[in-house]
């Protein structure tokens, strides 16, 4: 666009003109000025996107007005209301009609009213109708509003009516003056180059007929209908003077009325209305004045009653209902329902607020189709009495003066029937919250005709106590407030000291024992579930008498954890007599178990030995990694369910892995019946929580299981943890893996020990190193030696199991190995399952990128690192778990790997897990490292120097 020359002066004006189809519109124009400063004949229509070059002539208000007027320009109007591109001439000739005009014009007028308000005293002109010159006649907007009075004169023959206008206290002649109504929605009148607006709502069409007419005549034949509609509406909104009929103004004190509308199987509600004397009005609308018409036939006389309503007072009553928890559902009929954020019904609301409403002056009425609904105070009294194995819940529902045994409402609560007929015939509507809060009370009751609950359902009582004045005995109250658990002394034969949170877990075990409950210890991995359990078992050993027929406890766990438990038992509870019920040569006679304090076995063996194990009665049955029984149709769950014991415990860092339904079988094992049947649990909890995101169901489930699940996260107990915790995980090789390992070991042992090693030459050291390396690879995963090997690895499975547990906690893990081949097996596995990870070995070109991805990408939780590539120079404090997949000759190198995570800047506690294949060279390397500390702690230790230091006996031990 050509830039305007600085020498040319210009001015922005607003031009009112009549569009041949759209009616009066306003346009912004830039008009060039003559040398003397007067407006020239040269002008240009401007828009928001073309006006910038004339910025010097505009102020901030002008930009707003121009943007508003863009929207009433014909091409913009066509574009908005007609989706296809079309020339304006074609649109107005072929498509535009009266129906479209009636739809579009009111919307345009709303924008024009805003524009006139903003224009104020800015230059405003009337556009020339012939040549379209934008500044033809200067207009002014009258500074004061105009008033209008409608006159009616009724006689025996007809009624005549006409308006009179007043401006600044003087009557204004407007008839036959070429005046025009330019806006109808809220009338603006153009006369003698002045625009007049009005001091009250006035449609332009009520004024238009009189621009060229003195009055309008209404005949007697049509007057009744005319009075009922047009005249009543006019009196309601405008000032009217009448001869031949009366207009009375009534001002009465009003009464707010709430009418209950009862809808069976639907949304019952209340309607708000106001009684002004004999007249009733629904809340809503903008009518400050309402008009009622009466006709006295004998006198042939009409009386219009003009009732002045107090809008401010009515609004106050409306706001009072909102403050009390209602929301307006229908503004037309003034109906209200409870706010959807609350669970109560309109009946609950009325019962709760009735006294307050009556005090505030409200009347309460009913429109209930013949039924008389009880509106009054409703409450529930509950008392709980403790028996040996159950709770007896004694409850009464109070409806005003009536005290009803709560058990009589059982079918109503379970089948969600809201109507309950009281002795006087009134219908009480059971509060909505009772269905949500007490349904489980009836569902879990032991009998239909009474409210007796199994003791395991203490959680339900704990939940309802939050909603009810619940009275309990002191012992029961103590059980309900189970957070305050008695301190239990540590067993004498326990080696070590429990940390405070572990002591709390140990105390909790005894709380469960005292009240004959089972429980799930769901602490994060690394917090010592094993140690807490061993302390309990040692305490049992010390407290149970020799004559007790059930002293033996059974521990069931995944195969990969058998030896870890054995080692931990040796360390912390060495006096426990432990039997590993594993392998093909295991005992087949259950009597043998009675000689031991603890029998350790696997889920697989329980399935195989179900018949034999089911004959035993154990002290404790303990499941480790109890998520293994999460599927109630699995063979493991079915086999474990038939086993018998005095107490039951489950241990799992991830009791809920994929679905809420995972918890059912674990809770059913520890506390049978606690969560009802599996199908009931699915319907009542799983579907509402997972598919409907129902928080109330989630809270109810939490309340039920809360006493029986103890979970502490690493973050919660961080202050009690040492900066770094190291643990060795002993892994059992698979049968195929073990077979290959033993064969290879025999070959090297025979070859090396028979001849080569005696010579102590360099070649023999290389051969020895090769042999040891191959054995270490087989201990990791035979696939490192045989590419086509498919039979699995015990260590590989153990690592994946622990990664599953950690990943559910959202923590980051460094995984170190000195074998790139070993890392690649994990790499391939993660890629196959689309698990994101970072990777670093000696061939990685962009080390910084791999590190940065791990540090900054929240989706990447795993970092595979070869010890040679990542042992130094990395700062990875984002990780709080370190997995060392294989032992190194030099512990200093191992320590360097650990220090990638445990270094300055680390604010979390770091857990280090070293994975060792049991009964392999790895286990012996660890033992030998400890014996040969002088070499292991030297400044430089290579594999070769370590091998050189080995004696003949050392070699025999390694290859034994």
**What strand order characterises the main sheet?**
3-2-1-4-5-11-10-9
The total beta strand count reads 42
The CATH architecture of the largest domain would be 3-Layer(aba) Sandwich
In CATH terms, the superfamily of the largest domain is P-loop containing nucleotide triphosphate hydrolases
Q: What is the approximate shape?
A: elongated
CATH structural class of the largest domain:
Alpha Beta
Fold-level CATH name of the largest domain: Rossmann fold
Low-confidence stretches: 1-6, 934-941
- Determine the N-to-C terminus distance: 94 Å
* Helix-strand makeup class: alpha/beta
Number of domains: 6
* Radius of gyration of CA atoms, rounded to a whole number: 45 Å
Mean pLDDT: 84
Quick one: biggest sheet?
Answer: 8 strands, mixed
Number of helices: 31
- Level of helix content? 25-40%
Organism: Sphingobacterium paucimobilis HER1398
Protein name: Helicase SNF2
GO molecular function: ATP binding; hydrolase activity
Keywords: Hydrolase
Description:
This protein has 6 domains: 10-141, no CATH class; 147-244, no CATH class; 250-291 and 308-367, no CATH class; 378-469, no CATH class; 500-719, Rossmann fold; 725-958, P-loop containing nucleotide triphosphate hydrolases (Rossmann fold, 3-Layer(aba) Sandwich), CATH 3.40.50. It has an 8-stranded mixed sheet with strand order 3-2-1-4-5-11-10-9. It has a 7-stranded parallel sheet with strand order 32-33-31-34-35-30-36. Strands 15, 16, 17, 20, 21 and 22 form a 6-stranded mixed sheet that branches. The termini are far apart. It is α/β, with parallel strands linked by helices. Helix 1 runs antiparallel to helix 4 (98-119) and helix 12 (500-514) crosses helix 13. The model is unreliable at 1-6 and 934-941 (pLDDT under 50).
């Amino acid at each position: 666009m050509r830039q305007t020359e600085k020498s040319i002066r210009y001015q922005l004006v607003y031009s009112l003109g009549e569009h041949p189809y759209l009616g009066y519109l306003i346009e912004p124009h830039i008009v060039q000025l003559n040398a003397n400063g007067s407006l020239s004949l040269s002008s240009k229509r401007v828009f928001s996107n073309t006006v910038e070059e004339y910025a010097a002539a505009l102020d901030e208000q002008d930009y707003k007005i121009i943007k508003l007027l863009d929207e009433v320009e014909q091409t913009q109007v066509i574009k908005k209301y007609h989706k296809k591109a079309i020339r304006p001439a074609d649109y107005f000739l072929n498509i535009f009609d009266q129906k479209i005009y009636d739809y579009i014009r009111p919307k345009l007028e709303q924008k024009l009213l805003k524009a006139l308000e903003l224009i104020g005293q800015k230059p405003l002109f009337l556009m020339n109708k012939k040549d379209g010159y934008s500044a033809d006649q200067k207009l002014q907007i009258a500074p004061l509003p105009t008033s209008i009075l409608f006159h009616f004169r009724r006689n025996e023959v007809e009624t005549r009516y006409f308006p009179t206008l007043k401006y600044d206290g003087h009557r204004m002649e407007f008839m036959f003056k070429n005046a025009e109504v330019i806006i109808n929605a809220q009338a603006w009148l153009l006369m003698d180059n002045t625009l007049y607006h009005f001091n009250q709502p006035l449609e332009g069409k009520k004024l238009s007929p009189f621009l060229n007419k003195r009055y309008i005549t209404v005949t007697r034949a049509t007057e009744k209908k005319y009075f009922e509609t047009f005249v009543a509406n006019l009196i309601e909104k405008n000032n009217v003077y009448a001869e031949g009929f009366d207009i009375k103004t009534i001002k009465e004190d009003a009464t707010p009325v709430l009418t209950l509308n009862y809808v069976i199987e639907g949304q019952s509600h209340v309607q708000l209305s106001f009684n002004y004397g004999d007249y009733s009005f629904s809340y809503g609308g903008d009518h400050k004045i309402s008009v009622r018409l009466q006709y006295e036939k004998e006198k042939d006389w009409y009386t219009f009653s003009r009732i002045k309503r107090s809008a401010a007072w009515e609004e106050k009553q409306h706001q009072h209902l909102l403050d009390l928890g209602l929301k307006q559902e229908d503004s037309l009929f003034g109906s209200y329902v409870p706010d959807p954020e609350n669970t109560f019904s309109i009946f609950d609301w009325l019962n709760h607020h009735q006294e307050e409403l009556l005090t505030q002056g409200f009347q309460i009425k009913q429109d209930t189709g013949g039924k008389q609904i009880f509106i009054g105070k409703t409450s529930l009294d509950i008392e709980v009495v403790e028996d040996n194995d159950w709770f007896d819940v004694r409850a009464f529902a109070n409806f005003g003066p009536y005290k009803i045994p709560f058990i009589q409402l059982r079918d109503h609560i379970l089948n969600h029937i809201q109507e309950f007929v009281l002795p006087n015939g009134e219908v009480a509507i059971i509060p909505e919250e009772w269905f949500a809060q007490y349904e489980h009370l009836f569902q879990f009751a032991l009998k239909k005709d009474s409210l007796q609950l199994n003791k395991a359902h203490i959680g339900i009582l704990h939940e309802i106590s939050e909603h009810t004045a619940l009275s309990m005995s002191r012992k029961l109250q103590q059980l309900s407030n189970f957070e305050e658990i008695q301190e239990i002394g540590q067993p004498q034969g326990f080696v070590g000291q429990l940390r405070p949170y572990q002591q709390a877990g140990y105390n909790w075990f005894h709380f469960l024992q005292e009240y004959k409950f089972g429980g799930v210890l769901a602490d994060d991995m690394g917090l010592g579930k094993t140690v807490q359990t061993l302390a309990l078992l040692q305490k049992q050993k010390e407290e149970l008498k020799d004559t007790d027929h059930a002293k033996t406890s059974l521990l069931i766990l995944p195969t990969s954890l058998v030896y870890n438990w054995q080692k931990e038992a040796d360390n912390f509870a060495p006096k426990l007599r432990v039997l590993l019920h594993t392998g093909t040569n295991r005992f087949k006679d259950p009597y043998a178990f009675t000689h031991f304090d603890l029998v350790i076995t696997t889920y697989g063996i329980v399935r195989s030995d179900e018949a034999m194990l089911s004959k035993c009665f154990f002290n404790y049955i303990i499941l480790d990694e109890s998520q293994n029984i999460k599927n109630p149709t699995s063979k493991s769950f079915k086999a474990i369910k038939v086993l018998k014991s005095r107490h039951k415990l489950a241990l799992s860092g991830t009791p809920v892995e994929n679905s809420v339904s995972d918890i059912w079988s674990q809770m059913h094992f520890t506390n049978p019946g606690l969560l009802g049947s599996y199908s009931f649990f699915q319907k009542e909890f799983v579907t509402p929580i997972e598919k409907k995101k129902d928080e109330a169901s989630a809270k109810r489930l939490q309340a039920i299981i809360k006493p029986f699940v103890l979970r502490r996260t690493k973050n919660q107990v961080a202050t009690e943890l040492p900066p770094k915790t190291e643990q060795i995980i002993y892994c059992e090789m698979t049968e195929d893996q073990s077979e290959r390992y033993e064969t290879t070991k025999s070959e090297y042992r025979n070859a090396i020990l028979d001849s080569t090693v005696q010579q102590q030459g360099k070649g023999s050291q290389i051969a020895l190193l090769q042999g040891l390396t191959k054995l270490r690879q087989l201990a990791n995963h035979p696939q490192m030696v045989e590419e086509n090997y498919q039979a699995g690895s015990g260590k590989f499975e153990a690592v994946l199991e622990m990664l599953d547990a950690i990943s559910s906690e959202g923590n980051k893990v460094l995984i170190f190995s000195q074998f790139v081949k070993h890392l690649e097996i994990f790499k391939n596995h993660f890629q196959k399952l689309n698990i994101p990870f970072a990777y670093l070995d000696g061939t990685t070109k962009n080390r910084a990128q791999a590190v940065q991805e791990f540090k900054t990408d929240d989706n990447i939780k795993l970092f595979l690192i070869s010890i040679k590539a990542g042992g130094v120079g990395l700062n990875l404090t984002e990780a709080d778990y370190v997995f060392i997949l294989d032992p190194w000759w030099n512990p200093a190198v191992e320590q360097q790997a650990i220090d990638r995570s445990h270094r300055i800047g680390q604010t979390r506690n770091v857990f280090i897990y070293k994975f060792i294949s049991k009964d392999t060279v790895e286990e012996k390397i660890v033992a030998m490292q400890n014996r040969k500390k002088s070499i292991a702690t030297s400044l430089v230790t290579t594999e070769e120097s370590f091998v050189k230091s080995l004696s003949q006996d050392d070699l025999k031990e390694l290859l034994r």
